[in-house]
Amino acid sequence: MHPHWHSASPENQRRLISLFIRSLSPQKSTSTPFETELKFTRSPHDVAAVLRWGLRHLQLDGTSFGKEPAEWAWYQTFSKEERAAEYPPKAFTTKLMPLLPKPHLDLLMATLEIESSLAAHAEHNSISGSKMSKFLGLWLLTASRAEADDDWESFYARWERAGRILEHLFLARIRDESVNHRMPMRLTELVNQYPYSRTSMSVEQDDMLPSPRFTTRSYDALFVRIDAELETAEVEKPKSNRLRLIAHAFKLDVAETGAVVQAWDTIKK
């Protein structure tokens, strides 16, 4: 997950959101200030952030994405039918579209259109279709983005699954479009090896498309949670900054030996 990017600007994002809200009022002109500003926005991360903002405030018809009430039932049906038919190029049209109500399908098509436009110029904007799918999957394909009993691990698993599902739909859409339309080579080369290798599939995710080699990579990370209490009459101000305390700890040497030292050396790396 990449919640923040060095090129992103919260100020630009707030301005775009404000202009978008103003553009909802009836206007006579064909072009709105929001559309004009959007064309000259430098960072695609700002555009993605505004799109995520819109999806976060969007309420899907029904209790879940798709026609069936069970979450991901539509995707499991599509994945199984596509596999059973040996991955036909028009699977998006023939297998997926009948499983989605029209409002959901329209939303999906509009989102995939944006993804394709950005992915076609990934060398310049550093936004691949896989990365965009991970950004938007949870917000687009789920009616409930958080559960009451969520912890970090369960939320991340749902976030990753939604992103991989949207990535699958993105690739299936490219194959579907390339049958009747000329597509940019940058997009068609993404599906040359479709459906990719099945050796990386796990038993738990047998309905998922195998991760292509160009998908976003996974890295090991250390999750550190820092709780800080605001200074009140009952709580004294901490004597030292907690982040400074952690930075100082990384500079210390451990006098002991054994597994603890090895773990600490791994953390410091």
UniProtKB/TrEMBL annotation:
InterPro entries: Msb1/Mug8, Msb1/Mug8_dom, Rho_GTPase_activation_prot. Pfam families: Msb1-Mug8_dom (PF08101). Gene3D superfamilies: Rho GTPase activation protein. Residues 71-203 form the Meiotically up-regulated protein Msb1/Mug8 domain. It comes from the Eukaryota. PANTHER family: MORPHOGENESIS-RELATED PROTEIN MSB1 (PTHR28093:SF1). This is Meiotically up-regulated protein Msb1/Mug8 domain-containing protein. The lineage of its organism: Eukaryota, Fungi, Dikarya, Basidiomycota, Agaricomycotina.
